[in-house]
Amino acid sequence: MIAEKVYLKPTSVEEAVKMAVLHHDSFRYLAGGTDLLVNKFQGNEESNCLIDLCEIEDLKTVIKHGDPIKIGSLIRLDDLKTHKLIKDNFHALVKVAHEVASPMLRKTATIGGNVLCENRCSFYNQSEWWREAVGYCLKCEGQICIATGGKKSCFSKFVSDTAPVLISMDAQIAIVDKDGTSIIPLESIYTGDGIAPRNLSKTAIIKSIILPSNRHFNCSFRKLRPREAVDFTSLTTAVSIDNKGKVKLVAGGVDPKPIVVEGTTKDDKNELIKQVVKKARIVDNDVYSRTYRKEMITVYLNQIFSEIGH
Q: Distance between alpha carbon 8 and the CA centroid of its chain, in Å?
C-alpha cells in the first residue's frame, strides 16, 4: 500500500511545529528546497509529508534589538546583500553567501537551509541505481563505509558554507519546538556523526540566527571546489578576530562536523592552524584527494590570516 502524499503550508512557526508533531513518522520541512528536492529525486529522501515554511513571515525578517542582530532563517542567500544591518556588520557573511551554489539557486536557497544542509559523500549522493550497483553504504542502511572500508562510522562531510563563517563569529540560533523556544550556540547542533549529523529534534525549527553586532569582527574565508558555481565545498575555512583579540578558526568540508579552534591574537597562528589540521577527519569521499584537502587547510588559513592582518 502506497502512503498518501501530504503537502501542508502553515502561516506560523507554532502551527508548523504542531503539523510536524502530527506527521512525526514521515515528514520534512521545506524552505528553499534546493537540497531536499534533489535528495527526493535521487531517492535519498522518502518522506510522505512536506511542510512548506515559505508563508511564515516571522522567518523572513532581519531585526536588531540592543546588541544582537537576528536574521530570520528564511532569508534567501541572494537577499542578504540587500539588508543594511547585515552588510554593515557582517560583510564576510554576505560574501560567503555569494559563494554558495549558483545565482539562480541563491535566489531560492535560505540561510537556515544552508546551515542545515545535509552532509554529503561522493558514494552516497548519487542516483538510486548507482548506489545499488556500487553497494549501499552505512548512510543508506548498508553494512560498510565505501570510502574507508570501515563498518562503524560514516564520514559524510559537512558542506555548509555559511555555517563556518557564522560559527567563527559566535553565532547562536533561536529554536522553536513543541516545548517552546531556546537559544543555543550554532556549533552545538553538529554531532560529528555522518549518518545523524545534527542533534536537533526532528520537529524543531530554526527561527533565527543571532549574531553580536558590538564585537566588530574582522572575518574572512576561503572555499575550495572544482567550479565557482554549483559545486558543494571540498573545503571551507573561516577566521574571525573580534575587538578584544579573540580568534576563532573554523573548517568545513573535511569532517562530518565543523572543526573549531579558538585562541587569541597573542597565540602563535601556526599552532592554531596545526590544531585545525589535526582535528580534521578527512577521508577520500570527494573529487579532491584526502591529502590535497588536508594540505589546503594550512594554505587557506595562512591566506586568511594575512588578509585580516594577523
A: 25
